[in-house]
């Protein structure tokens, strides 16, 4: 729950550590009018959450696992995901703005018809994920792998950069 904050946590309004959160009700105490402002989650497991049309603003997720995490039509703005695993989740029609992913894994995640703008992906892998009609603008991908994923009609602008990115068995 909201524990004593260390100096590095002081920029966040809410700090959650070492929690196994099942269903969205377990997060209600941290949400304000459909928004999670400046939430810092460390070593947490998010299970079977339905948080569609939710705004995540300036949040940080570190060493977290998201399983059956439903965030359809949600917005992630200025967030950080580090050492996270997102499994069997639906994030369609979501918007990711100025969000950073480092050492993350997307396994069987539906990101179709979502928009990703001004984001960075470092050492992040996508496997068995749906990336159809994904809009990618001004993003940077480095040391990433996209495997067994549907990338049909992936829309990438000219300002997006790829460095050491591998596409394997994509549709």
- Domains counted in the coordinates: how many? 1
Number of strands: 23
- CATH fold field value: Pectate Lyase C-like
Net shape: globular
Q: Helix amount, in percent?
A: under 10%
Beta-strand share of residues = over 45%
> Radius of gyration from the CA trace?
15 Å
What is the CATH C-level name? Mainly Beta
CATH superfamily: E3 ubiquitin-protein ligase SopA
Q: Under the CATH scheme, which architecture would be assigned? A: 3 Solenoid
Question: What is the count of DSSP helices, taking H or I runs of 4+ residues?
Answer: 0
How confident is the prediction overall: mean pLDDT? 89
Keywords: Chloroplast, Plastid
Protein name: Pentapeptide repeat-containing protein
Organism: Fistulifera saprophila
InterPro entries: 5peptide_repeat, PA_immunity-related
Tell me what you see in this structure.
The protein is mostly beta strands and 171 residues long. It has one domain (15-168): Pectate Lyase C-like (3 Solenoid), CATH 2.160.20.80. Helices cover 0% and strands 48% of the residues. It contains no helices and 23 strands. Strands 1-4-7-10-13-16-19-22 form an 8-stranded parallel sheet, with no helix packed on it. The protein has an 8-stranded parallel sheet with strand order 2-5-8-11-14-17-20-23, with no helix packed on it. The termini are far apart. The mean pLDDT is 89. It comes from Fistulifera saprophila. This is Pentapeptide repeat-containing protein. Keywords: Chloroplast, Plastid. Pfam families: Pentapeptide_4.
């Amino acid at each position: 729950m909201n524990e004593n904050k260390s100096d590095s946590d002081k920029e966040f309004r809410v700090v959650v550590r070492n929690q196994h959160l099942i269903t969205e009700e377990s997060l209600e105490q941290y949400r304000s009018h459909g928004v999670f402002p400046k939430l810092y989650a460390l070593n947490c497991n998010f299970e079977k959450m339905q948080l569609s049309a939710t705004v995540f603003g300036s949040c940080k997720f570190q060493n977290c696992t998201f399983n059956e995490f439903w965030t359809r039509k949600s917005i992630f703005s200025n967030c950080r995901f580090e050492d996270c695993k997102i499994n069997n989740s639906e994030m369609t029609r979501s918007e990711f703005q100025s969000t950073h992913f480092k050492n993350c894994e997307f396994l069987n995640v539906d990101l179709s018809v979502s928009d990703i703008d001004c984001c960075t992906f470092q050492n992040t892998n996508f496997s068995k994920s749906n990336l159809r009609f994904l809009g990618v603008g001004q993003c940077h991908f480095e040391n990433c792998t996209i495997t067994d994923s549907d990338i049909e009609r992936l829309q990438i602008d000219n300002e997006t950069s790829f460095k050491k990115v591998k596409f394997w068995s994509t549709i």
